[in-house]
Amino acid sequence: xxxxxxxxxxxxxxxxxxxxxxxxxxxxxxxxxxxxxxxxxxxxxxxxxxxxxxxxxxxxxxxxxxxxxxxxxxxxxxxxxxxxxxxxxxxxxxxxxxxxxxxxxxxxxxxxxx
Length: 114
Description:
By secondary structure, the chain is mainly β. The chain has a single domain, classed as C2 domain (Immunoglobulin-like). The protein is built from one helix and eight strands; from the N terminus they run αββββββββ. Strands 3, 4, 6, 7 and 8 form a five-stranded antiparallel sheet that branches. A hairpin with a 2-residue loop joins strand 1 and strand 2 (32-40). The longest helix has 13 residues, at 4-16. Residues 1-15 have low confidence and may be disordered. Residues 1-16 form the signal peptide. Keywords: Signal.
């Protein structure tokens, strides 16, 4: 354990810069589901910014991806939507994860579809 502590401390700054899904809503429409996802991330320009978020089924299948085309340095947190997501019948919860250009995927956020 004493050897793991320095590595954990070293990893903490990287985790601090990962994108976070702050909240989300979902509504079913005739063409599928529409998700509105609020993301926060300390975007610092084109070299490091939240570049997308995805919707995953409980088995890990990606159901939809919203690509973010530019940094949001002055708009934090920000909300973007994705429509027409096909969610398989019987799925009661989805997982949302934001992605950034340096650290990859942030922590999962579970959204009930009830």
